[in-house]
Amino acid sequence: MDVKTASAVRRFRLVSFVEAVSFVVLLAASVLKRTTDFNAVPVLGAVHGFLFVLFCLFLLDAWNRTKWSLGRPVLYFVLSVIPFAGFYAERLLKAEEERWVAAAHGRKAQEVPGDRDEQAVGA
């Protein structure tokens, strides 16, 4: 396990959090658009769309480096399209990141809840 893998998971975790925040802000702007004269949806929609593309790219990068089975990236993708679930995904990714960083530095880390993929690999 190397530092590049830990960095990929960290980048993915950070963009996951920002994407989750942008999704919630976009939902709030959508409500305001329909209830007031305030319309920030075009701008916030473009920002959220850009962040979602980054999310997908970083998801693919982290998946490639960590060698997760198909279930884990699918879970993160599904969580990204459910309002507020992106924050739960960020929590899972934080534990995952800590485990990869500890492994990259040769330390024993706490096990990630629900992490059966890495047990099979022998991490």
UniProtKB/TrEMBL annotation:
NCBIfam families: integ_memb_HG. InterPro entries: DUF3817_TM. It comes from the Bacteria. It is found in: Cell membrane. The keyword Methyltransferase does not apply. This is DUF3817 domain-containing protein. It is a multi-pass membrane protein. The chain crosses the membrane at residues 12-32, 38-60, 72-89.
